[in-house]
Amino acid sequence: MQTSSSRSVHLSEWQKNYFTITSGICTGRKADAYRAQILRIQYAWANCEISQVCATKLFKKYAEKYSAIIDSDNVESGLNNYAENILTLAGSQQTDSDKWQSGLSINNVFKMSSVQKMMQAGKKF
């Protein structure tokens, strides 16, 4: 009895995700739905509800669709996970500068509550 109820819950989730994917809702929600589908496939495979061959085909299908949304630089159909500014910084070697200074100094570090707790714990021993 538990198996049929758990399958009906999964079917319900599949239906919700299918509606989200096909309804043309925002791309962020579509990406979330694809990610949820991938997790459900993993769950079904781990519980021997689907075969390895079936899981492989479904993983490929949904991973390709998910990555198409995440990696797309089209504003209307993708999320552009790789922003141009980040790629520019990664491509250039100019991010290492002698003028760069950290906001942390020895005095600032000792003022942090976690560091003070560690120092007090060390004094107890």
UniProtKB/TrEMBL annotation:
<protein>
    <submittedName>
        <fullName>FIGNL1 isoform 10</fullName>
    </submittedName>
</protein>
